[in-house]
Amino acid sequence: MTVHVLREASADAGLPLVLLHGFPLDHRMWEPVAGRVDGARAVLAVDLPGAGGSTAVEPALPEPALEASADAVAQALAAAGVDRAVVAGLSMGGYVALALLERHPDLVAGLGLVDTRSTADTDDARANRLRIADEVLASGSVDPVRPMAGTLVGETTRASAPDLVEQIAAWIDGQDPGGVAWSQRAMAARPDRTELLRDFAGPVAVVVGEEDQIAPLEAAEHMVAAAPAAQLVVVPRSGHMSAVEQPDEVAAALSELAARADSA
C-alpha cells in the first residue's frame, strides 16, 4: 500500500492528517480538500486494499475485512515514518478509521468521521452489498456500481455541478472489479463500533452533508452523542460526497479537528 503525500509538511507543522477514501473510489477524491487544509501540516492519503493503485502493489487480497484494511493502513504509515496522526475517513474510510482506532489506538490522535456511520449494516443492506459483489464479479466490470456516481452526491450538486458527477463516474470506472467486490464484502462484515467512540477521549469531528441520504444526519447525531469530545458539522448543499462537493467546508472542519488534536 502506497502513502500518497497530498501536501508536504513544513517544520513544526503539527500532526499529519491522514485521509481515507470512500467506496468505490480512491485517494484522489481527497485532493480538493488537501490543498485547503489550514496551516502547513502534512496531508496524506492511501488507496485502501483493492482500490486505486493498491491493486498494482497488492494483487492478492486477504479475506474481506475492514480490520485488514486498518492493519494495512497502519503498516503503510509506519513505513512512512508516521506513528501518530489525525485520521479522517469518508463513508467506507470512516469504517476503516474506526477499525484503526480499535486495532491501533496509539496511532489515532484525532478522528474525523465524514458522511459515515458507526453502526453495522442492517440485514437488508448487508444482503444488498453481497448481491452487488456477486454481480461485479460475474460481470467482470464495475457496471453494477457505476450508477452510484449520481446517488453519492446531493440534489444540489446533481443540478448545479454535473461535471462533478462525471468526475466521480470516471473514478469509479478506474477501479478494479475484484477490489470493488472485496470492499463490499468487507463492509458487509463490519460490526457496530459505537462503543469505541464512548471510550475515545481525543477530539472527534463528525461531518455530514445536509443532503446525504446514505449516511444521513441521524447517523451523524448518533456518533456525536456517543463521543465525549465530538463536534458536529453539517455541510450545506452537499450529499454523501461532501469532501468533493463542498471541499472548503470539509477542509475547515478537518483543520479545526487537527488543531484540537495538536493542543490535546
Can you describe what's shown?
With 264 residues, this protein is of the alpha/beta class. It contains 13 helices and seven strands. The protein has helices at 31-34, 54-57, 66-79, 92-103, 123-139, 148-151, 155-160, 162-173, 177-188, 194-199, 217-226, 242-245, 247-263, and strands at residues 3-7, 17-20, 43-46, 85-90, 108-114, 204-209, 230-235. It has a seven-stranded mixed sheet, with helices on both faces. Helix 3 (66-79) crosses helix 4 and helix 5 (123-139) packs antiparallel against helix 9 (177-188). It is globular.
Strand content: 5-15%
- Note the main sheet: 7 strands, mixed
What's the overall average pLDDT, rounded? 94
Task: State the total count of DSSP E strands.
Answer: 7
Q: What gross morphology would you assign?
A: globular
User: Largest sheet, order of strands side by side?
Assistant: 1-3-2-4-5-6-7
Helix content: 40-55%
N-to-C SSE string, H for helix and E for strand: EEHEHHEHEHHHHHHEHEHH
Task: Tag the structure with descriptive keywords.
264 residues; alpha/beta; seven-stranded mixed β-sheet; 46% helix
Secondary-structure map:
Blueprint: E1 3-7, E2 17-20, H1 31-34, E3 43-46, H2 54-57, H3 66-79, E4 85-90, H4 92-103, E5 108-114, H5 123-139, H6 148-151, H7 155-160, H8 162-173, H9 177-188, H10 194-199, E6 204-209, H11 217-226, E7 230-235, H12 242-245, H13 247-263
Parallel strand pairs: 2-3, 2-4, 4-5, 5-6, 6-7
Antiparallel strand pairs: 1-3
